Amino acid sequence: MTTADGVPVTGVCELVLEQNDIAAAEHFYADVLGFPVVERWKRNGDAVWVMAADRTRIGLWAPQIGLGGGRGGVHVHYAMGLPVEAYDTVVERLRGHGYEVLDHDHSKYGHGRGRAAYVTDPGGHVVEFWTWDVAGHLQELAAGESPGSH
């Protein structure tokens, strides 16, 4: 859903993450998380592409300058939606592979926005698996709630 004058996006289709160790990153995303590898590049440095669900691909790139001058940098984290019923299994899977997982319950803050598991990938990127459907923001706006009122 977009406003009448907004850009009609369908979501995030691609995310690229710099990785100093492509093999370790591929192991994390393909083997630990189970995301299928859909493409490999050998030009301008190594890159592996995996699919997160059916509409988002994640590029795992050796450090480089990308199209449009894109380059790596410091970020806080990125999040992927996760069904509530899969949460505990995902946390157990990550821990079973030796990863430290921060298990965070957003309901402590009174807004009921689900649980989130945070884990750091081999490239130092913090990956969040969140059970709250962010479409709730649009539902809140439609109901007349002001942004940031939680």
Highest CATH level, the class of the largest domain: Alpha Beta
Q: Please indicate the count of domains.
A: 2
The CATH H-level superfamily of the largest domain is: 2,3-Dihydroxybiphenyl 1,2-Dioxygenase, domain 1
Strand content: 25-35%
| Helix percentage range | 10-25%
From the N-terminal CA to the C-terminal CA, the straight-line distance is: 22 Å
Q: Indicate the overall shape.
A: globular
> Can you write the helix and strand succession as a string?
EHEEEEHEEEH
* CATH architectural grouping of the largest domain: Roll
The SS-based structural class is alpha/beta
pLDDT average, as an integer? 85
Task: Describe the structure in your own words.
The chain has 150 residues and is an alpha/beta fold. The protein folds into two domains: 1-64, 2,3-Dihydroxybiphenyl 1,2-Dioxygenase, domain 1; 76-150, 2,3-Dihydroxybiphenyl 1,2-Dioxygenase, domain 1 (Roll), CATH 3.10.180.10. It is 19% helix and 27% strand. It has three helices and eight strands; from the N terminus they run βαββββαβββα. The chain has helices at residues 22-32, 87-96, 136-142, and strands at residues 14-18, 37-41, 47-52, 56-61, 78-81, 102-105, 115-120, 126-130. The strands form two sheets. Strands 1-4-3-2 form a four-stranded mixed β-sheet, covered by helices on one side. A four-stranded mixed β-sheet has the order 5-8-7-6, covered by helices on one side. The longest helix has 11 residues, at 22-32. The model has no long low-confidence stretch (mean pLDDT 85).
